[in-house]
Amino acid sequence: MELILNELSFYPLCESSEFLEERFNSFFKAFDKAKELYKFKHVSFPNGYQLMKATREQTFYEWVVGLKNNKTKQAILTFLRKPYVDDLNQTETDSYFSSNYKIIDSNVPTQESPIGLVIASIKNLPSVSLNTHAFWNNTKILVYKVIDDSVSDEYMTAYNICLESDWNSINLNEWSNRCYAHLIDDHEKIKLYLRFTKYTVSFEQTFLEQFFELKNTDFEQFKYLLLLMKDTHEHPFSGGMGQTENLTYRGKEASKRVTQEDRLSYTLEKNHLTFIACKGHYKFH
């Protein structure tokens, strides 16, 4: 998975190479936190990154070539490869070219049309911004569609990180609950979503089959199931979401209500939580 560079965050353009280098050092810390939390491996830059303005006097290519700090230079060069921001599949391409886009907030430091923020929204991925202006500290940025030269009421939401601490924000938690669900395709990504600290976690094969079937058939219900799973961390046996039940005479076995017909069934023993099923009623042994 990759983060998407918000290319507009080079604005306002830095007056010196040293100032921009400082901003990239903060950028690296935010990316390192992304790797730690969600295993992001890359930051996608625009395909034409060489010609982007980086400072008042230099293009991005000129700035990178002129860096004296070899460690910083090498760290940046690792990002300048595929996938690029604008490497899109057909569905994503159709969505992107359905209109033009504009940020209408009065505090935004540029009137340029965004690319990275839009594509981050289309791909359900966070954007990452350089800390060049207070506006780019926003962890949620709204981008409005421009149709027939008029700004419409329709907008896209880009969840944005600028600082390492942004990963603890309410909006990035919202991204996890609303958007990361689209990206979950194996049991390791489920663990990354849950981010349990008190328990280790595992999944029975039956649970995984039911879990991914639900993702394909009822995505809204699937997102609710994820919230129930996350709630087991704080409320495994009582309280919380889903009318939690600690099943009598079943030791450490419990359930939460997904629907009237279906239960999330799990066990918790010796600080290890095992998800057993998410369809039907109590599925044990």
Radius of gyration using CA atoms only: 22 Å
End-to-end separation in angstroms reads 37 Å
Give the helices and strands as they follow along the chain: EHEHHHEHEEEHHHEHHEEEE
Please tell me what the overall shape is.
elongated
Poorly predicted runs are: none
Query: How many helices does DSSP assign?
Result: 10
Structure summary, number of beta strands: 11
What percentage of the residues does DSSP assign to strands (E)? Answer: 15-25%
Helix content: 25-40%
Structure class: alpha/beta
Main β-sheet description: 6 strands, mixed
Strand line-up of the largest beta sheet: 2-1-4-6-5-3
Provide mean pLDDT, rounded. Answer: 92
Overall description:
- This protein is of the alpha/beta class and 285 residues long.
- It is built from 10 helices and 11 strands.
- It has helices spanning 17-38, 60-65, 70-77, 90-96, 116-123, 170-178, 180-183, 187-194, 205-217, 219-231; strands at residues 2-5, 42-44, 100-102, 127-128, 140-147, 150-161, 200-203, 245-246, 253-257, 263-269, 272-277.
- Helix 9 crosses helix 10.
- The longest helix is centred in the N-terminal third of the chain and has 22 residues, at 17-38.
- The protein is elongated and about 70 Å long.
- The protein starts with a strand and ends in an 8-residue tail after the last strand.
